[in-house]
């Protein structure tokens, strides 16, 4: 792994640790709110999506048949990953908050700390391997004669 890959890999957890540090700022501080919201909106999802990136890249996007644009697949895959990161982050926040509420230990700091630890763990995980593409062979219905 190159140093550049390590830096990119550790950006989401760094955002979480920065958001935790921002909790020391006064309650109404815009900087505190921005750091926390940006991390919760993108950090956990970005780290988890990076783990699944090879599986996502195994099947690139296909453009409309009547109009083939050269950059369609690249832009579509980027948009897909951005939206997945956003929605996976929101889902992770909801799951962590629900678990903490169910165990009667809910607080905003605990949610943030738990998600920061989860993001750090996901950033340290190796990417999953992509499964080989299934071969499409014509099959004959059972009981048919050929």
| Structural class by SSE content | mainly alpha
Q: What is the tally of beta strands?
A: 0
Q: Stretches where pLDDT falls below 50 for ≥5 residues? A: none
The succession of helices and strands, N to C, reads HHHHHH
Using the alpha-carbon principal axes, give the shape: elongated
The count of helical stretches stands at 6
What percentage of the residues does DSSP assign to strands (E)?
A: under 5%
End-to-end Cα distance:
53 Å
Q: Round the Cα radius of gyration to an integer and report it.
A: 21 Å
Biggest beta sheet attributes = none
User: What percentage of residues falls in helices of 4 or more residues?
Assistant: 55-70%
Rounded mean pLDDT score? 83
